[in-house]
Design a protein that fits this description.
Elements (H helix, E strand, L loop, with lengths): L17 E5 L2 E4 L1 H7 L5 E7 L2 E6 L8 E2 L1 E2 L6 E4 L1 H6 L9 E4 L1 E3 L4 E4 L38
Antiparallel strand pairs: 1-2, 1-8, 2-7, 3-4, 3-5, 4-10, 6-7, 9-10
Length: about 150
């Protein structure tokens, strides 16, 4: 074994790989982790267009999200609430199963086809125009002013 995950279409490659996303967590089956993330304990999540990249981190890295063992079977979970909230996904979103594939170019699992948040820019907010520049601010009487005794 070379230590690199099998590419889609290689021998023994399952036809479809699936993960689940629910309540701000990303659930990965043991078989997927054994194939693509063997020995990985932390990952980084990156948003690229309509995709999420699950990037394995080395043991020497000083950060990332833990790839926690979820059950005795060996399934894993990534607690991704902050990441998903930051991308406009609500924590209580309905459970969703989605395909995933390995990208050798990105050295990451790719979760394609996630819709972006449906956020409309707020056009009715106007900047404050009655704020006076600092030069117009006068100190109150009796307060110490620098350079004056």
């Amino acid at each position: 074994m070379t230590g690199e995950p099998n590419e889609p279409g290689e021998p023994n490659e399952p036809a479809v790989q699936q993960i689940s996303i629910a309540r701000g967590n990303i659930y990965l089956p043991r078989e997927l982790c054994d194939r693509y993330l063997p020995g990985v304990v932390a990952v980084a999540l990156l948003a690229r267009e309509d995709k999420i990249l699950i990037v394995p981190l080395t043991r020497d890295s000083g950060g990332g999200l833990l790839l926690k063992q979820r059950n005795a079977r060996g399934d894993r979970v990534i607690h991704a609430q902050e990441f998903l909230r930051g991308k406009g996904f609500v924590e209580d979103m309905a459970p969703r199963t989605t395909p995933v594939h390995w990208s050798r170019e990105s050295a990451a699992l790719i979760v394609p086809g996630l819709p972006g948040p449906d956020i409309q820019p707020e056009t009715d907010i106007q900047p404050e125009t009655d704020i006076q520049p600092e030069t117009d601010i006068q100190p109150k009487a009796g307060l110490h002013q620098p350079g004056r005794l």
